[in-house]
Amino acid sequence: MMCNLGLSPNCTSCPQTAHPPLNYIGEYMKTVYLIRHGQTPGNAEKRYSGGRTDESLCEEGIKVAREAKKTYDEIFATYNGNFRIVVSPLKRAVQTAGILFGENRDDFKKIDNLKEMDFGLFEGKTYDELNGTPEFQAWVDSGGKDQVPGAETFEGFAGRIFAGLKEAVGPSPEDETLAIVCHGGTIMAAMSVLTGKDKYDFMVNNLCGYRIELENKDGELHLLSYTGIEYGDAPRPDYRRSP
After folding, report:
1. Cα distances (Å, whole numbers) of residue 3 to 145, 207, 224, 228
2. What confidence tens digit (pLDDT) does each residue in 107-150 have?
3. What 3-state class would DSSP assign to 26?
4. Do 37 and 68 touch, CB atoms closer than 8 A?
5. Can you list the positions of beta strands (E) in 37-123?
6. pTM, entire model
7. CA 215 → CA 37, 96, 162, 223, distances in Å?
8. Domain 30-117+154-229, architecture per CATH
9. How far apart are CA 26 and CA 222, in angstroms?
10. CA 163, CA 159: separation in Å to the nearest integer?
11. How far apart are CA 217 and CA 143, in angstroms?
């Protein structure tokens, strides 16, 4: 299980996902919460909902997001409203941010580069619809590393996401906190680039994510530590079977 309520980066209560700081200590700290949006109809039907799919939350997604707001209110209470909110421009991310943070905030910054990956041929389809097709089987056989026909390459996607993360953090040489409401693939790509680990190590459910501590020095981001945030009891997804 990942740490609940955004515990400190050095938390030892959840050894599977709590990590000590990396060997880089800077003067200015950026605390960033990467939060996946709430459930959509496509998520409920286990469809590959990527950057081409712009749908709102389903009724269940809205209900659970409202419940999750209590958790995120506790997490962010310590900041007394002194945090910035950044979102992917897709409806599901904007709507989730509105539920979690929007009662007293309307200053969301939208960043196009934080949109979900374009899934190409797989966009909008389910595992059952794709299973047995040569394109899907080749992708599965590659461990999800080959490019999906018509889709972004992961390298291109990861580069776009990291550019979006840098834009979100900005050049300000000050300690500050950000909430970034985005997508599962966005979080996977960002964490993979920052840690050098496999993207599939960072799959998260709706309304879950990571708290990361960064330093922004000379325009470059350096990861200091990261801690998982979990809401709900569902097992972590496997995008190679069901997004």
Report:
1. 28, 14, 17, 5
2. 899 999 999 999 999 999 999 999 999 999 998 888 887 889 99
3. coil
4. no
5. 84-87, 109-110
6. 0.84
7. 25, 27, 14, 7
8. 3-Layer(aba) Sandwich (3.40)
9. 9
10. 6
11. 35
Token reading at 9: 């980066």
3-state DSSP assignment of residue 164 = helix
Query: What's the one-letter identity of residue 103?
Result: E
Amino acid identity at 68: A
Gap between the Cα atoms of 145 and 50, Å rounded: 17
For 147-170, write each residue's pLDDT tens digit: 899 999 999 999 999 999 999 998
* Residue in 211, 229, 215, 209 with CA at minimum distance from that of residue 169: 215
Treating both helix axes as pointing N-terminal to C-terminal, what angle do 59-77 and 91-101 enclose, rounded to 10 degrees?
A: 50
Extract the tokens encoding 56.
Answer: 């709102």
**Cα–Cα distance for residue pair 147/154, rounded to 1 Å:** 7
Query: Could you report the per-residue pLDDT of 166-218, keeping only the tens digit for each?
Result: 999 987 768 899 999 999 999 999 999 999 999 999 999 999 999 999 987 77
Residue 57 has pLDDT above 50, yes or no: yes
Edge-to-edge strand list for the sheet holding 209-217? 109-110, 84-87, 176-182, 30-36, 209-217, 220-229
Question: Could you give the 3-state DSSP secondary structure of residue 122?
Answer: helix
Compute the distance between CA of residue 222 and CA of residue 166 in angstroms, rounded to an integer: 11
CB 180 within 8 A of CB 114: yes
Facing residues of 30 across strands? 176, 214
